[in-house]
Amino acid sequence: MRYYVLERRALEGMVQALQPRPKGKRRRPEDALQEAGREKVRLEREMGRLQALVRAAQRTMGLPPPPSREKAKGDKRRRRRPQVRAVKAMALLRVPDPAPTPEAPEASP
Fold first, then answer.
1. pLDDT, tens digit, for every residue of 56-105?
2. What is the longest distance spanned by two Cα atoms in the chain?
3. For 99, phi and psi rounded to 5 degrees?
4. I need a surface site. Which of 10, 11, 87, 107 has the fewest CB within 10 A?
5. What is the pTM of this model?
6. Residues 84 and 59 sit within 8 Å (Cβ to Cβ)
């Protein structure tokens, strides 16, 4: 009885091998998963870029930043206060430079 089962499976394999195969690269589930991961990373980068553009536009218009979301009470870390680079650069440019002191001429022997 086992012989006929094996014979049938062998014939089915030969028939399947003779059938025309689709052209092009075949899609595998692993490939689709990797592509979804790449798309997720790309969308996260785009979201960050768009959020930065929105923040820059809000600063340009002089709108106050939106209220920050409160973290859980268990978080004891001190949050870093964000500093705007342009504001820091303007503050440095506004500070008057101390006048350079003339150095004493060196005496030559």
1. 999 998 888 888 777 656 667 777 776 778 778 878 888 776 666 666 55
2. 117
3. -65, 130
4. 107
5. 0.41
6. yes
